[in-house]
């Protein structure tokens, strides 16, 4: 599989990665933010973006404000992620801005066509799968761990893009961010945890290529092969840059954010 040549940037003491695939879309901003920088101390240290891991709320809020401001967005919206396929359409950011407050809405799939709203997925090994419809100027950001692959959050996201915005899957641009790689995605009990159709992604005994699984789900839903970029960075291998639940157990959450400039 060919992996994208991610663009690594430093903005206001934060380190983030961007996908070349998205660079040509007017008004689009995005970033996969690392754990570097930020205000959090102790464990988690750095740019923790989750209110649910024992961090001081004011530190998390400060970290989110830095992320928001670095992308020149007025607000960030995120969800209480539960490894499901529930979609939340953000048609108005007012009252849903979670930059400085914990989330109250539950879901794993965010959609919007409104400028000024950053859709954020929190991660510590799970994938953020970002979709862009350049024709209708609509976006989605999906939380896709292995349970998301099993439950079909990726095809559900594309289904929602079609239903809400009239998106043609052939127009969509898709990016799969840094996440657990085939080097570290071990499933000792895979016969109980993964459906049989996923077993073909086993690259060596008990280890699975979740990136390829997501790519195949995007292709099956109608996304063109040339419109898919995979970061190819394993979070468990790169705890210098990213939080990893698999590697660290007690840790923070980094974030992937995508939005349209106001």
Estimate the strand proportion. Answer: 25-35%
The profile of the biggest β sheet is:
6 strands, mixed
Kindly provide the name of the CATH class: Alpha Beta
Radius of gyration (Å): 17 Å
Broad structural category: alpha+beta
Corresponding CATH superfamily: CNF1/YfiH-like putative cysteine hydrolases
Helix content: 10-25%
Element-level helix/strand string? EEEHEEEEEEHHEHEEHEHE
CATH architecture, by name, is 4-Layer Sandwich
Mean pLDDT figure: 96
Give the strand line-up of the largest sheet.
1-2-3-14-7-4
Question: What spatial form do the alpha-carbon principal axes imply?
Answer: globular
Count of DSSP strands:
14
Subunit arrangement of the protein:
single chain
Number of domains: 1
Which helices and strands appear, and what pairs or packs with what?
Elements: E1 7-11, E2 14-18, E3 28-33, H1 57-70, E4 75-77, E5 87-90, E6 109-112, E7 117-123, E8 127-133, E9 138-144, H2 146-151, H3 153-165, E10 173-176, H4 190-193, E11 202-204, E12 207-208, H5 210-220, E13 228-230, H6 245-248, E14 254-260
Parallel strand pairs: 4-7, 5-6, 10-13
Antiparallel strand pairs: 1-2, 2-3, 3-14, 6-9, 7-14, 8-9, 8-10, 11-12
């Amino acid at each position: 599989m060919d992996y994208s040549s991610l663009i690594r940037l430093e903005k206001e003491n934060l380190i983030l990665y961007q996908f070349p695939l998205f660079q040509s879309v007017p008004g689009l901003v995005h970033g996969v933010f690392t754990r570097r920088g930020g205000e959090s101390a102790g464990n988690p240290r750095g740019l923790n973006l989750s209110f649910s891991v024992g961090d001081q709320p004011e530190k998390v809020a400060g970290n989110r404000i830095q992320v928001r401001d670095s992308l020149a967005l007025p607000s960030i919206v995120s969800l209480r992620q539960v490894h499901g396929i529930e979609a939340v359409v953000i048609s108005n950011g007012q009252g849903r801005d979670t930059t400085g407050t914990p989330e109250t809405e539950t879901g794993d799939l965010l959609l919007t066509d409104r400028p000024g709203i950053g859709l954020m997925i929190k991660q510590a090994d799970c994938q953020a799968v970002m979709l862009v419809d350049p024709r209708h100027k609509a976006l989605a950001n999906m939380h896709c761990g292995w349970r998301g692959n099993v439950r079909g959050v990726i095809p559900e996201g594309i289904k929602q893009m079609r239903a809400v915005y009239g998106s043609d899957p052939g127009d969509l641009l898709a990016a799969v961010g840094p996440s657990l790689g085939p080097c570290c995605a071990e499933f000792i009990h895979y016969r109980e945890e993964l459906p049989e159709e996923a077993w073909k992604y086993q690259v060596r005994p008990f280890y699975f290529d979740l990136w390829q699984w997501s790519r195949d789900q995007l292709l099956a839903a109608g996304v063109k092969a040339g419109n898919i970029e995979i970061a190819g960075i394993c979070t468990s291998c790169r705890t210098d840059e990213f939080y990893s639940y698999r590697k660290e157990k007690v840790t923070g959450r980094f974030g992937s954010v995508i939005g349209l400039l106001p």
